[in-house]
Amino acid sequence: MQTPRGRRRAAVPGSTPRVVEAVTTERPRDPHRDARRRRGPFRQITEFAAASGIGQKAGIALAATGLVLTVTVPATSPVMADEAAGVTPVAATAATPQPQITAEAAAQIDFSRSAVVTQADPDGKLKQLLSAQSAGAVSRAASVGSLGAPLATLSTASPFGYRVSPITGGSGDFHRGQDYVAQCGTSVLAAATGTVTFVGWHQYGGGNRVVVDHGNGLETTYNHLSSFNVTEGQTVSRGDVLALSGTTGASTGCHLHFEVQVNGEVVDPTGWL
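Above: the chain's sequence. Below: its structure in token form.
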């Protein structure tokens, strides 16, 4: 045959087309290869470091564009193996078995509010203070603040202890309580929860008098009252109105004479208020 360039090509029989054999067998593939590709090399390394239990801190050096990147991988919680990999998840540390607690069928559980003492529960404090011991064994540091004020506003007119008698003018008079300024008709309040044991006239100068028993030898008395709001045997709560102030008995003017008695003996009320 004559080519366009004037060369002659030898006539040869046409070559038989080569048959391409189809490959039907697929190469085995790693089922987790695609997942690793999607996570990227950095995440693969950090997951490997966490799963292999390197420790609390593992330094991982990555070379990228000529820079070394140090990554700290914390392992603060148990690492669980991937269930898809066919590995049974195992906790990093075995749980410590707890001892069993048993109780009899007739056992009673007492959730007494006196065991819970806060500044917002002064009656609970007083009850706990007196439950284990007599009032006479309570120290002043423990008793201060356990009783409430018998008046809405306290202003001392005459303190507890020896003084010049306002009645006779003689010295050496022992004042058995604390006198507070109060106009006649002022509400007199219970210093704490208790039972009223006396309501009436006090023949030794107290005039109209109310006595409240708070238990374990602790009592409070309220004197020179003009009228009563309670009766004997009545249970009162802290802050309840017991009576109205006055000037009955050995008194030179309207006020409240307040006493604190421990096992029948008067003590300084300021040690409990």
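The helical segments are 33-51, 122-131, 140-143.
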